[in-house]
Write a structure and sequence with these properties.
Shape: elongated
Distance between the termini: 134 Å
Helix content: 55-70%
CATH topology of the largest domain: Pyruvate Kinase, Chain: A, domain 1
CATH superfamily of the largest domain: ATP synthase, F1 complex, gamma subunit
Largest sheet: 5 strands, mixed
CATH architecture of the largest domain: 3-Layer(aba) Sandwich
CATH class of the largest domain: Alpha Beta
Structural class: alpha/beta
Strand content: 5-15%
Strand order of the largest sheet: 3-2-1-4-5
Number of helices: 9
Number of strands: 5
Amino acid sequence: MAVPVELVQTLINGILQGGVYAAAAVGLSLIFGVSGILNAAHGELVMLGAFATYWLVTLYHLDALLTLPISFALLFAFGWALQYFVLNRTLGRPLLLSLLEVREVRKRAVVLVSADKGLCGALNTNVCRLAAQFDPASTVYITAGRRAAQFIAATGRQLIADFPYGDTPRFAEARAIAAFARDLFLRGEVDQVQLVATRFVNTVTQEPICLDFLPVGAITTIQVPGVERMAAIEADPTESLFEPSAEATLGELLPRYVNIVMYVVLVNARASEQSARMLSMKNATDAAETLLADLTLEYNKLRQGNITKELLEIAGGQAG
């Protein structure tokens, strides 16, 4: 049975033109921030909505009636409705609940942040030693800094991503690392994400730390000035009304919180590196100056001894 040429041409035109609609829909969703906090599945649904919208427009011969801005607005509305009503309500839970979900840890990811260079004392050694405590069989590593990547390669552990960051860490660099780790967690490839980095205490003190990055747990160690403690807030029977809902609000805030935590870690790591290098170079300079002073003193002692010996020999020869 022969396939009508018109049907083939219609299918080809639908795929090509539907792809343009899909690209426009995805672009608009990114611009308006719909896909910025969502995983890859939302982008696929937006593209599916774009193709469906194109075929609806073609079926009812609305091409001549819809201008380009109206078409884009229709695509954006269709994609947003699809991700809100289908994905959030049917295919899975909201992003908020996914980032808060505590699962049995069968596989974990460790984000290891180190320096790019040496000559900074035991900074890199301490943070790599802390990262080596995890089971290599059930742990994958995401590194930031050349020394961390070199350590993972040298020890035969599984490295799945390596991110560079500059002497002055930028928020975009932190957001890229956080987004990669967040996608691993949301797709269920890992059950926990931990941060291993260096915390800047002061100029002479930097300590390696291991933080629980994902899932996001209760924040109990921070006391904001002027804000009551959590126990007092929980004891208050007053109900609070969120507009939009509390889940929608936290759903917007949690991804940004994750990005900010990663940025703070990068800034602390770079500040610790610079302080440790400054202290290491100062100690090396002081040790070199001490060694130089000791060698100079020893040289002067030997020189003075030789001069005294020669004078005694001359005096003894004249006496004889």
